[in-house]
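Quality-control log, excerpt.
Job 1 of 2 completed; input and output follow.
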Amino acid sequence: MMKNQYTISTDALPSISELSGLFAQADWARKRNHGDIEKLLQNTDVFVVVRHGGSLVGFGRALSDGVFRALVDDIIVDQAHRSQGLGQIIVRTLMKQLSAVEEVFLNTGHHLESFYSKYGFKEFDGLTMVA
């Protein structure tokens, strides 16, 4: 599939049901319910939506104060549309939106380290803690 068949948006969030369907494809997001996805969308200002023929096929978002810190999260591409460069488009578009932010963080699995390193991400020397 040619990349020009895809539309990229940073100003129109997907619907709850669309995002739920996309999240259902990922182990890390499969258990998210509609109410929580609705809250996620209400609190999302920095995002990228990828559509193909009007259908949601990619999504990514960031949480940020717009100055000092941002967290890139929920990067996902529909299984049928992977290996088309959409993950790259999502990350590049998010990073462009976050270009004025001092530090951008990302949580990911080790198997995706080489993918994200292309965008300037590197292993963090500090201690990351989770509550």
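Job 2 of 2 completed; input and output follow.
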Amino acid sequence: MNNPRLLAGVYNMLINCANALPGQRLLIAYEPERFGHFDGDVVEYLAQGAAQMGLNVECIDVGFDAETPSLSSHLLNSMKGADIVVFLARLGDQLRFSEMPHGTMIINSYTLNTHLFKSAFATADYTAFEAVKSAIDCCVAAAEQITMTCNSGTHVTGNPNLKGVAAKDTTLKRFPLSMFSPVPAADFSGKIALGGFLTGTGSRYFDEQTIEFDAQVYALLSDGRLAGFEGEPADVAKADAHYDRVADIFDIDRNFVHSWHAGIHPGCGYPWDIRKSYDRWAGAAFGNPRILHFHTCGAYAPGEISWNVFDPIVEIDGVLLWENGRLMLERLPEGAEILTRHPSVAKLFANPDMNIGLRERT
């Protein structure tokens, strides 16, 4: 841990993202390894690195609550006494659109293990991706028409209607920063080629929250509403039954499609098989530009069921910004400047990590 290169991800999180200073108090709210999502050594890795940087570190076990996540009084009191809070727990993701205590830097980390913490996903300069996110948010907000397609048959068009509207995102910081602000789906229509399955959004967890299809299934979108599915009859019946069940469990608007966004971090690699854990995949791989996803089933962010499109092609007012799963940042007015200011990030965009856990599918 004394090797600065091994601490690059910790430094990036605490300095570039959290603006930490020696002597400040860091609270790590962690989910124990026994729940099968975060590796236990990632907590120790962050704690040791933070201590070496002069921070006073406290760790608190927040467990995992699948259906009714909340900030306990013990956790709230601990958060109030901290300068920085880092969630290495799904609790942070579950509450990412909820109100959080003010006056404390709160970060939700998607570094599920030390492999991700040491990879380009976590070590690539956070400030560069703040600029990337801001540039894309501005481009989307000014857009008149956005078209999304893919080689599997996706074709969706719409107007984000965000002119003069402040971007809405999570109430805490994401680390690494790998998504732009969600785009309302209310004025989008078309056909979405689902990536072979339906899975959860990381909001709430329930039994059998992932279903797989035998053939290509399309979700039909009409002005922000699910209008049905196309595909083999057995697959369509399975999709409809899944939506019926989830909507019934939570008493939510079955057909509401809330928003969508795509990955912006070319270092977000996922070298593990998606089928080993869709939950882990959904909690780490979504930031790769090869993945675009919709938040559906529930009239709130992020809903309960996600639609995942692989290798999207996204055109914004004539600018082809995502091309077969690659984010062509240089095509934005601010993009070339960002790449010039951050040459190591420019190399990452030139040689993106294309691994998103689909080896057995391709």
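Post-run check on job 2. The chain is about 25% helix and 25% strand.
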